[in-house]
Each structure stands twice: as structure tokens, then as C-alpha cells.
Q: What sequence folds into this?
């Protein structure tokens, strides 16, 4: 383990992160909300800490190994969550504990969208902007941003990229060099954000709301500048339409966006097995939701049923977490159905959470293969994705991920119930944080402010576990990882 090299990287990344305090400072000046000092102090604290870590080891320039990459990724997300909480802690206009501040910071960076803050409509503009910015930075992953600039600092990035994006498609690259790959992802991400902000503005949002909500929409984060979330814009139906479009787009593999953009053709979307599954699942859940809402007469008109039904399905299904209605109060099985949809989440390589559509597709086809083997014991049946046979190692990896996910989910849920929560609240809180969704059911349907501090720390771990897709974090807890 190259601890001094890791220290140098953490120092550099903290110095880079300190610059993210500058935009909230500008917002504070523009709106004169009296919150300039907390962000300036955080900027200074983060920058100085980064310099102190970097300076003694600035000449350590060895290439990172894969094991080092895992440690850097986990440490950086944890450290970033702590430093990101500083403005919440020292702001005189917020009265929250350190636990709540860290929870809010990690929820933003992991694009979970679970909040402990109430009275958002009355908070300073700079704080509101900062929350949204945390989600935007976390959406694509600050590690990917760091990979784009690491070569200028004399550090290789492939190990970090692989550690940040585990799963069946972790070795795919858009361009021959990892630096160009990271840049390509960020160009697409930035372009979508600008397009989303412009569309929100044209749909009727004020400029501040348009920019901040574009951050959390493209990041599939779910934070809002209003307590009513997207319900605040209920009189602007086009806002919901814009949100639906961009949430759906952000849930697609960004490598697919890049391929389609480079070739100037949409055909690649319809050749992709994961996208077709993603689209089909959304369509099926939409139809079930709309038909049942119409049957129950939940809304006064068919138009309301369509727009609210489609919005909630896309928002929960992509793990964004925006709401226009209190879906947890919807009739029958719908709240649970939508929550279960978040377990699948977005496509691999997207900003969505959940287990990812490609894993769901492989699990489904593996299950179908086992049924066929019962009927035809001697048949040789291969699992194909995109017309290509899937290697057994990938199938094993997916089953390993699923097993680890279920085990981690069960243990965390039991711990949550030990804190005094009922089964529905505990189950939905763990689902909403591990899937990086945000809103749950029961006591956490609106916010997480009422939970015990222990429960909030447990859910912080669940957010990191979900954001880093289980193995990246769990591998650090194994004794063999630390052996030479």
C-alpha cells in the first residue's frame, strides 16, 4: 500500500474541492443573504488541510495500483462528505447538529436526495445553491473529474476509474485514453445540464431555480430549493415534462450517449439491450401506475393522472427522488411498487442509483436459463447480451454483487429496527439510501429529520455503500485487502 502517494492525492483533491466553495460565495454576494463567511471559512479550511497533506509528499509520483485506487476512492468520498458538511455546521442561519450536517453533505454528494432540512423556502440562496451543487458534483463522480486532470499532476487514472465504476461494464472505455474518456463524460454531462437549465427556464422557472434544479435533475439527485419539491411548480405543467425528459436521459448509460453523439445517430440506443430493458421497464410500470390511479379515481382528470403518474414513475425508477405528489399516500400497492422499481435503478454508466438495469437483465436471463436447464438438463445454454455470449465470470460477479447487496441490506435494516423504527420505515429508509433514491415510506416519506443520530450514521454508510456499488467499500473491510 502506497500510503504516501495516497496522502498526496487526497491533499490535491481537497485543494481542488476547496474551489467549489467559490460559487456559493458569489451567490451569497448576489443575494446578500449574509452567508458568505461560512463558505469562505470552509474554503480556507479545506485548502489549508489539502496543502498540509500534499506539501510533505509532493514529490511522491509512483503509479497507483488497483488496491490503492479503491482506498483513494473510499477515503475521498468519506473525507469529502466531512469537509462538505462544514458550511452547514458553521452557518448561523442553520441550526443543525454535526450528524445532520454530515448526513446532508453525504446525501448530496452521493446523489441520494434524503434530507434532514425543513423550511427550505426560507433558507439562504447560497445554502440552497450549495446543496444542489453537491449533487451535481457527485452525479458524475468527482473522481472522474479528478481522472481528467490527474495526468497534469503526474498521476495515472485508470485504477481510480475502475474502482469508481465496478460492474459488468467497468472495463469499457469510450476513447483510447482514460483522460479523454473522463473529459468526454464531463462534456456530455455539462451539455445536458445547460440544456436542462435552459428548458426549465423556458418552461417558467426563475433563473435560480432553473439552474439549481438542472443540477439535481441531470445528477439524478432529487434535492430541491423548495419543501414541496417539484410540487412547488404544480401550476407549470411544462416543468414536469422537462423534468421527465431529462431524468430519463440521465438514467441512460453515458457511454451510449457518447457513442450516439459521436456517430450522429440514435440507432445505437435501440441496439443496446440494457437501454431496451430500461425503456420497457419504465413503460410497463407507467402503464400499471396510470391504470390503477384511474381505477381508484385518485385524481380529478385523466390529464392529471397521466402527468403525475409518469413523473413519479420516472423519478422513483431512475432514483432521482423528485416528487409532485405524496406518492407514499397513493392507494394500494403503488407506493411499494415504485419503491421496488428503485432497486433496479438506472443503467450502468449513468448517474442513477440502484443495482443497475444491466445487472437486473443478467439476473433475469440467468434465472430463465436455470428454468430451461430443469426442462433440458443436458442442454448448453448461453446468456447473450447484445448478441454476444456473456462470460461466466461476469455472471458470477453479478450474482456475487446481488448476494452482497441482499446481505448488506438485511443487516442494515435490522440495525435500523434496533434504533426503534417500524418495519416499513426501516425497510424504505435503507432502500431509499442504498439505492440513492431519497424519499421513503412511513416516517421518512418527507424527510429524515426525526431519526435518531445512530440511525442517520448507519444510513450515511448505506449511502456510501450504494454510491460505490457495494464491493468498492466492502473490499476495504476484508482482512485480505490489508495484507501485503
A:
Amino acid at each position: 500500500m502506497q500510503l504516501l502517494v495516497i496522502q498526496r492525492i487526497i491533499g490535491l483533491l481537497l485543494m481542488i474541492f476547496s474551489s467549489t466553495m467559490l460559487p456559493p460565495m458569489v451567490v451569497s454576494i448576489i443575494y446578500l443573504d449574509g452567508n458568505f463567511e461560512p463558505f469562505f471559512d470552509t474554503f480556507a479550511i479545506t485548502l489549508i488541510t489539502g496543502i498540509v497533506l500534499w506539501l510533505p509528499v509532493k514529490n511522491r509520483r509512483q503509479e497507483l495500483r488497483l488496491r490503492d485506487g479503491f482506498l483513494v476512492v473510499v477515503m475521498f468520498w468519506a473525507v469529502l462528505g466531512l469537509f462538505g458538511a462544514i458550511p452547514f455546521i458553521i452557518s448561523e442561519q442553520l441550526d443543525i447538529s454535526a450528524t445532520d450536517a454530515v448526513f446532508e453533505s453525504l446525501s448530496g454528494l452521493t446523489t441520494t436526495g434524503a434530507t434532514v432540512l425543513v423550511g427550505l423556502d426560507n433558507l439562504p440562496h447560497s445554502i440552497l445553491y450549495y446543496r444542489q451543487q453537491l449533487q451535481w458534483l457527485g452525479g458524475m463522480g468527482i473522481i472522474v473529474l479528478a481522472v481528467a486532470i490527474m495526468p497534469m499532476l503526474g498521476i495515472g487514472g485508470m485504477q481510480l476509474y475502475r474502482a469508481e465504476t465496478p460492474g459488468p461494464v467497468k472495463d469499457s472505455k469510450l476513447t483510447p485514453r482514460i483522460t479523454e474518456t473522463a473529459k468526454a463524460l464531463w462534456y456530455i454531462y455539462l451539455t445536458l445540464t445547460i440544456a436542462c437549465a435552459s428548458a426549465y427556464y423556458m418552461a417558467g422557472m426563475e433563473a435560480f431555480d432553473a439552474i439549481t434544479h438542472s443540477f439535481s435533475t441531470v445528477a439524478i439527485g432529487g434535492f430541491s430549493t423548495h419543501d414541496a419539491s417539484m410540487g412547488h411548480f404544480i401550476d407549470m405543467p411544462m416543468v414536469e415534462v422537462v423534468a421527465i425528459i431529462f431524468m430519463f436521459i440521465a438514467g441512460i448509460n453515458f457511454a451510449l450517449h457518447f457513442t450516439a453523439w459521436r456517430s450522429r445517430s440514435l440507432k445505437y440506443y435501440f441496439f443496446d439491450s440494457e437501454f431496451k430493458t430500461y425503456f420497457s421497464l419504465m413503460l410497463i410500470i407507467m402503464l400499471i401506475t396510470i391504470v390503477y390511479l384511474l381505477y381508484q379515481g385518485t385524481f380529478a382528470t385523466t390529464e392529471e393522472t397521466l402527468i403525475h403518474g409518469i413523473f413519479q414513475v420516472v423519478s422513483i425508477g431512475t432514483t432521482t427522488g423528485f416528487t409532485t405528489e405524496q406518492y407514499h399516500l397513493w392507494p394500494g400497492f403503488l407506493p411499494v411498487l415504485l419503491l421496488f422499481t428503485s432497486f433496479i435503478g438506472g443503467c450502468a454508466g449513468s448517474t442513477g442509483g440502484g443495482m443497475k438495469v444491466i445487472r437486473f437483465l443478467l439476473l433475469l436471463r440467468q434465472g430463465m436459463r436455470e428454468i430451461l436447464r430443469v426442462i433440458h438438463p443436458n442442454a448448453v445454454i448461453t446468456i447473450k447480451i447484445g448478441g454476444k455470449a456473456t462470460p461466466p465470470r461476469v455472471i458470477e460477479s453479478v450474482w456475487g454483487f446481488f448476494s452482497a447487496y441482499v446481505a448488506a441490506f438485511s443487516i442494515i435494516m435490522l440495525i435500523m429496527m434496533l434504533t426503534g423504527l417500524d418495519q416499513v420505515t426501516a425497510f424504505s429508509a435503507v432502500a431509499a439510501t442504498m439505492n440513492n433514491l431519497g424519499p421513503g415510506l412511513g416516517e421518512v416519506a418527507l424527510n429524515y429529520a426525526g431519526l435518531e443520530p445512530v440511525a442517520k450514521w448507519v444510513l450515511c454508510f448505506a449511502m456510501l455503500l450504494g454510491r460505490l456499488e457495494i464491493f468498492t467499500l466492502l473490499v476495504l473491510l476484508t482482512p485480505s485487502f490489508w495484507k501485503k
About this structure: The beta strands are 384-385, 388-389.
